[in-house]
Amino acid sequence: MEPGASPDLPELTTDAEALPLRARQSLATRNRIFEIALAEISDSGLAAVRIEHIARKAGVTRPTIYAHFPTREDFLRELQRRTEASALDAVRTRMQENRRGNFLHRFADATVDLLAAADPVLRRETFALMLREPREEEWMGNALFGFLKEQVARAQARGEIQPTLPAQALTRIVMTALFGFFVIETGEPAARKKQVHQMLDLLINNSTT
Fold first, then answer.
1. pLDDT digits (tens, 9 = 90+) for 69-124
2. Less packed terminus of the chain by CB within 10 Å, N or C?
3. Do the Cβ atoms of 197 and 127 come closer than 8 Å?
4. CATH number of the domain that 82 lies in?
């Protein structure tokens, strides 16, 4: 990545045009800081990021940055939230397509594709933060988890997945297993999809016993 270049970022879904002028300006400032911060992290890693460099490039003061992002880790948490929103959009699209196969497999395919397109440094730093500071209330309380739990419950009602476990418990197991897989496994997307499908088949089959 060229110095100062911004990686491709998920869009923040806030309808900026519906906000008052001051709120739109604040959102624009936050987005500018966020994009510059991610470019800095991508170039040198989270530990080497300097807030004064971000402030200078964004044309704001250090206190302004801290008002939006109190810690450097908050840049990655914001990225995680936006990525989860993108993943939800992607899996909804996959669910609407006329494709065969369990919806969990379609979800896995969408996730592998998103990760393959992500900046590798940002991906590594985000995973490292999630391992250092796991926040169960965030990942189990977000819209993506809720959507998957709803789909698991529907699949159980259809008989596609036996209701041996409650939908929330099974969704938690699947999400935890997928996270561990994505952190550890490497390789080309096609190979990763094959491996993750094998893992999901084991989970789904075991949930029926």
1. 999 999 999 998 888 888 888 878 877 765 556 788 888 888 888 888 889 999 99
2. C
3. no
4. 1.10.357
